[in-house]
Amino acid sequence: MSSEKPQAVLREDYCPPDYWIDSADLSFDLGEEETQVRARLEIFRREDLIGDSPPLILVGEELECLEVRLDGEVLPAHRYRVADDELRIDSPPERFQLETRVRIKPHENTALSGLYRTSGNFCTQCEAMGFRRITYFLDRPDVMARFSTTITADKASCPVMLSNGNRVEAEDLGGGRHRVRWEDPFPKPSYLFALVAGDLRAHRGSFKTSGGREVALEIWVEPQNIDKCEHALASLQRAMAWDERVFGLEYDLDIYMIVAVNDFNMGAMENKGLNVFNSKYVLALPSTATDADYEGIERVIGHEYFHNWTGNRVTCRDWFQLTLKEGLTVFRDQQFGADMSSAAVTRIEDVKILRAAQFAEDSGPMSHPIRPDSYISMDNFYTSTVYNKGAEVIRMYHTLLGAEGFRRGMDLYFERHDGAAVTCDDFRDAMATAGERDLSQFGRWYSQAGTPLVEAEGSFDSEAGCYSLTLKQSFPEPDQSATREIPRQALHIPVAMGLLNSSGEDLTVRLEGESAPGETQTRVLELTQSQQTFIFTGLSQAPIPSLLRGFSAPVRFKMERSREELAFLMGRDSDSFSRWDAGQQLALDLLLDLAKTSARGEAMALDPLYAEAFGRILADPSLDGSLKALALTLPSEKVLGQEMEVVDPDALFAAREFMRKALAQTHCDALREIYSRGVERAIDENEQDAIHQRRLKNCALAYWMTLGGEDALEAAATQLERAENMTDTEAALVVLADTVSEARDRGLSDCYDRWSEDPLLLDKWFAIQAGSRRPDTFERVLELADHPAFSLKNPNRMRSLVGTFCSANPVHFNRADGAGYRFLADMVIQLDSMNPQAAARMVSIFNPWRRFDSGRKALLKQEIERVGGQHGLSKDVFEIVTRALADQSD
Ligand SMILES: [Zn+2]
């Protein structure tokens, strides 16, 4: 470890700032070699400090301070101090104007935080703490100021100059320079500031709000991408209409701009009126983007738009409250996605993400509550826990209060807090008041880390006609986030459930003490104690319970059930989520058994019960193609690994490969037939049906390919050649990339030639090879890391190779010789010197290291320590590595 240890910031240390900033008038002079920023800030002391005059401390990183003025007068050097990333002024007046001038170097900024260059253009990213890399400021979300921005630059290189709010002035300065001025009428924290300048083109549209405001919509992209924006624009229009319809929320400025950039650390950023997006979430044509890409774009466009209210109009008091805006906005984009396509498919996909990423995070060294208690680098807390588990917590309010109660809670939240920076408790209080519910116990979801386990046990009393269901909650894993010993307490957990009869029909559910059965067949039980029993009456036969319908709480759920019962639910449950989940549970049990068999070196065999259920799904006319494809897909090795005491990547790989192949053998004819039907029917269908069809067809192709026959190989090669959309192209290339064949070599080389001018397609080209099951994948990955088109500087490209291989290819990454681990450590060390945020994300792939066998554990530890021992390690990577290596309390 390096000698200076970065310090943690604690939630309990929050106090309001000594000074507030009323308005910030910024002026940028953009140049090739340097940029000068002048900031004129109207500052006043906190009201309750009148009489007392604490120093003003503004933060700033990598700034060269050129001049400081106070109320117009140049401040002599002894009146202020610039040191340790801050500008300090002792005893300033109660109210004053501070003007600073600084020099920054955007072209040298590889961290992609603050103001930087991408593809020759200027662009900013300020969340969470990037604004301090632009100018000295009170860079914290509770300081909300009115911003105006003047930008001066060369007309030739920067014909377009954008910032937040409305454009109020434009002027030609002569000599090839020009200037614009933007004013944002809404006070906002500095993390929502944005500036973009460069050679860009706009794809334009408009939206008329229900209140009659005509809003200009502009999607700004590099000139060659101007034909790829229609889907993003249409998604934005749908999102605006949806937010009005569902939440009564209208847009509040005359213009809404989205800019697509190639170099971006995240998905997208909701800066007021000027969103900046990773181009991956904007650009799409059927020939360049898959169905999943299209859906991803719609969701992310919606997400950033929804932030205009949940995040911008009402923002976070401090960064510990991040889930206030992110959990809520992810929930909103999930609901939007469900309404735009298929609610069942959307729900299953969202839960898959939660289980693969968040459950893993919650059982490792980075486990934290959705509202963390401490951080060293806030950038490390843009996590699946804050986002995805945070969204599940919001969903539970929705489940407990109902759609109408939730809407009343949202209305009250805006009525109380519009224009303010607030906390998660403020949100919970609005929900409790509007819903007339006591949600104090529910508040524990914000403070307790770890995934709760809910166990269910049922018994039927045939004489009384009663079914009793006992639910228990516990935390089987130690709380790795706790800095002190606080025993975790029972949570308030909504468990949606129903009862089925032996033919699979829903029974009307009546709880003991109720005079009549409930109106709906799905009921929500509220588990608030560590153990509770619910008694259902009026039953003539033993029911089959369907529990945690729609995944009503972010918990691990266990019930002792026979495989027959799981197969029954997999074939019949009326709740599509639970139906899918029963199938996953069954497959998971079987795969874990097979992995044990494989590890013992014994012969594996396919369970006939599962094979039969698989066949029923193939033949079921009531399921659409997307649901079928989801049901037919076995749990990933990552999800399976979470269920093993000691993860055995080789055995899991062998078991899963065996089962895929055995299922394909058993249902070979049906799969081939589905594939050919899919190829024939691809044309004349509506969009949603075509998507379902493609998903099912490509799922069938993947199974068929496991048999290794020439016919399947030829089908895949033909599909790659003839595909008219990227979904089919990519699916064919993915299955070919697993093979040792001439078709694979030709396919990859043809695609490279066709795709080499399009960065997003090249990302796919790298990712497909990094994810391959071929035995020589690691060697190929090393070659690709030296490929001229590879670069660690571009986050998308870096993730497509390093991220895909290390996090989505467990069998090859976890080679027993540790070469995969060495590769990741090498990449992290290189990356950390240019982009600490991205490096920290990559190094956290090591987090589950303690779950492996002793041989791998030793190799992993060695590589983590090697990263930790680097000179000049960033605090981002320092924090992850320190937590990973920390002694475990138990
Ligand atoms: Zn967000």
Provide a quick synopsis of the model.
The chain is an alpha+beta fold and 890 residues long. Helices cover 40% and strands 20% of the residues.
Structure description:
- The model has no long low-confidence stretch (mean pLDDT 96).
- The chain is 40% helix and 20% strand.
- An 8-stranded mixed beta sheet has the order 6-5-9-3-2-12-15-14, with no helix packed on it. Strands 17-18-19-21-20 form a 5-stranded mixed beta sheet, with helices on one face.
- The longest helix has 34 residues.
- The chain is an alpha+beta fold.
- Helix 11 runs parallel beside helix 15 and helix 15 runs parallel beside helix 17.
- A hairpin with a 2-residue loop joins strand 10 and strand 11.
- The chain is globular, with a radius of gyration of 28 Å.
- The two termini are 24 Å apart.
- Bound molecules: zinc ion.
